[in-house]
Amino acid sequence: MINGQTAMTLLANADLIHSAETVAAAVNRVARAITTRLHASQPLLLCVMKGGVPFAGQLLTRLSFPLDFDYLDVSRYGQATAGGALAWRVEPSLAVNGRTVLVVDDILDEGVTLAAIRDRLLQMGAAACFTAVLADKLHGREKPLQADFVALTVPDRFVFGYGMDACGAWRNLPAIYAMREG
Ligand code: IMP
Ligand code: MG
């Protein structure tokens, strides 16, 4: 966590990557794509804490077909751990067995987190596992998973806002910013 003054300085020195209007339009686009694909399958929408909250919340208000909602919370053991070892802080409390699941997260970076979540949900008996991310980071390296639904792409920089945090701050912004290098 950082204090309020440090958070203000951080934002003042950041670059705007996607405005609030651009993000809102992209979320609407994804909601339509999800509706086309999943409207008849009564999916279980799973929000990945905490970064997935704004995206999942806005999506929810734009999906007008029967679905269920739950959340999960994971953390990576650390950058050094290859192969997607995850610590599950909270597993979904609703049964995923036989369900079409839609996992909603903030950002697909290396893809390790989302790939491990998908593998675990399929192991738990999910019939199908779709993934939706607000942002796909363009870094040119192979990812173990491509998201089924992507709202926006972001450059290979540390981004924050709309669920994504910078040292714990600014998940609450309606737009997406990148920290300035150096
Ligand atoms: P991955 O396993 O590398 O795809 O990591 C994904 C997770 O790392 C996301 O759910 C975020 O919590 C975090 N993350 C990765 N890149 C960023 C970023 O640029 N800003 C904020 N969080 C990030
Ligand atoms: Mg996350």
Question: How would you portray this structure in words?
Answer:
This protein has 182 residues and is an alpha/beta fold. It has 4 helices and 9 strands; from the N terminus they run H-E-H-E-H-E-E-E-H-E-E-E-E. Helix content is 26%, strand content 31%. It has one domain: Rossmann fold (3-Layer(aba) Sandwich), CATH 3.40.50.2020. Strand 5 (100-108), helix 4 (112-123) and strand 6 form a beta-alpha-beta unit. It is globular. It has helices spanning 4-12, 20-38, 53-60, 112-123, and strands at residues 14-18, 44-48, 68-76, 86-90, 100-108, 128-138, 149-155, 159-160, 176-179. The model has no long low-confidence stretch (mean pLDDT 94). Strands 4-3-2-5-6-7 form a 6-stranded mixed β-sheet, with helices on both faces. Strands 1-9-8 form a 3-stranded antiparallel β-sheet. Magnesium ion (MG) binds next to strand 5. Inosinic acid (IMP) binds next to strand 5, helix 4 and strand 8.
- How many individual domains? 1
Q: SSE order in H/E notation?
A: HEHEHEEEHEEEE
Instruction: Name the CATH architecture.
Output: 3-Layer(aba) Sandwich
Largest sheet: 6 strands, mixed
User: CATH topology, what is it called?
Assistant: Rossmann fold
Widest sheet: strand ordering: 4-3-2-5-6-7
Strand content: 25-35%
**What's the CATH class label?**
Alpha Beta
Distance between the termini: 21 Å
Number of strands: 9
Overall body shape: globular
